[in-house]
Amino acid sequence: MAQLNRRASEICLEFRVDAMTDITGFGLTGHASEVARASRISIHIDHRKLPLLPGTLDYSREGFCAAGLTNNRDFFGPHVRIADTVPPDVQNVLFDPQTSGGLLIFCQPDDADALLKKLRDAGIPAVEIGSTGEPSSHLLTVS
């Protein structure tokens, strides 16, 4: 974790944020799936937009993955659909419990650009990685 989430959470109070979670031990897929389940929505994530720490994919390619990754994949995998175009090293990262504790923020679409700008202006490296939709057969889809 490069910085605390306090300032980002304070900025979120200025916008219509419906849900927010810090990505930790359950990995991105676990936390996103839990939000989708609790909110009765589906989530779509574009893997090409994921902000990754330097070296992350190199470690994944070389097989340096935490044991918890397998547990996360076994538990959350049945509720996640990952496109064949998502490389295996990225798929590992999606389930990896060794995350930096960044925030996954769900805001109203009309607020997304302004929220991103305000976060970035505060020095917080924020990116939009996906969208939400009506419930589907999978809680989370990654393309």
Strand order of the largest sheet: 3-6-2-5
Mean pLDDT: 93
Radius of gyration: 15 Å
Largest sheet report: 4 strands, mixed
Total beta strand runs: 6
How does this model look, in words?
The structure is a single chain. With 143 residues, the protein is an alpha/beta fold. It has a single domain (6-142), classed as PurM-like C-terminal domain (Phosphoribosyl-aminoimidazole Synthetase, Chain A, domain 2). It is 38% helix and 17% strand. The protein contains six helices and six strands; from the N terminus they run αβαβααβαβαββ. The strands form two sheets. A four-stranded mixed sheet has the order 3-6-2-5. Strands 1-4 form a two-stranded antiparallel sheet. α2 runs parallel beside α4. The longest helix has 13 residues, at 27-39. The two termini are 26 Å apart. The mean pLDDT is 93.
Produce a short descriptive summary.
38% of the residues lie in helices and 17% in strands.
Topology (SSEs and partners):
Layout: H1 6-12, E1 17-22, H2 27-39, E2 42-45, H3 56-61, H4 67-76, E3 80-82, H5 88-95, E4 103-107, H6 112-121, E5 130-133, E6 140-142
Parallel strand pairs: 2-6, 3-6
Antiparallel strand pairs: 1-4, 2-5
Helix pairs in contact: 2-4
